[in-house]
Every structure is written in structure tokens, then in C-alpha cells.
Amino acid sequence: MTSYVALLRAVNVGGTGKLSMAALKTMCEAAGFAKVRTYIASGNVVFDSRFGEAKVKAMLEAALAEYAGKPVGVMVRTAAEMAAVLAANPFPKAAPNRVVAIFLDAAPPTDTLQGVTHLDGEQIELGTREIYVHYGDGMADSKLKIAATKNGTGRNINTVAKLAEMAAAR
Hints:
By secondary structure, the chain is α+β, with helices and mostly antiparallel strands. The protein contains four helices and ten strands; from the N terminus they run βαββαβαββββββα.
């Protein structure tokens, strides 16, 4: 069995996409995933599965679409990949709540930085299947737009660290 972290896009954020973490856990267990644990009410779930990443993603997206009546994006990483995302943080000295890893399905496009608007002090670095952003003054007032992240989902480094820890402890 492989340990996975699944990150749901646009769940329990700003009053849209409501999904209780209990319902998410039940959904994952019904899909045959084992040792299912959720983390904070923003669509993070850690579990074990005998299926490969693509199958896990497809199964979870199908169950979520049935539940929500619309597509819900899911980014999936193995425990090792989640640890690698944490280790690759290009801003290790920055406050972890001001650094976000934006998870994508594939490598960021080579022209990612050309698709950035409203850059005002933020720092951006490309990862393997992630884009890292350091919000020096915090995210609250940032107007930063990164076109390549349209279908991605972000988690701050505190959350990435906790999910990596939960996945590694299996």
C-alpha cells in the first residue's frame, strides 16, 4: 500500500464548496482507501491505497463530483513527494505561514513567470509540480495573480509540514 496526501481545490473556502471532513473521510473509506485521516477543514486527507496516483485521483474526483454536483479538483502526492515538497521550500528562513506551495497536476509551464500580474513584493519559485510563493507582507492584501495556478490549490508550509508528517508516520 502507498501512503497518499490528497488536496482538494476550493473546499470550505469563502463559504463555497462545503464539504465536512467527516463526509470526506467517509467518501475515502467507501472508495476503499485505508487509514483515512483528514486535517483541518480545507480539504486535506491522508490515506493508504493499493491503487496508483492516477487511479486514486480519478476515484476521488468522481466521488466528489457525485457529492457536489460539479467537478472538484484534487491534487495527489505520495508521502515521499509531500516530504520532497517541504524539503524543496526555496524560502526556508521565511515565516512558514507566509510561504505557500501551490500544487499542480503537472510541472509548471516554462512561461509561468510571464503569466504573473500584480507582483508587489512577493517572491515566486517553480518546483517540480508546485509553485512556491513567499508573501512577505502576508496574503491578505496581495493582488498577485499567477495564470498557471488556475487549476491548482495552495497550502502554506505549516500545512505542508503537518501533512508530510502525517503521511510519513504511516
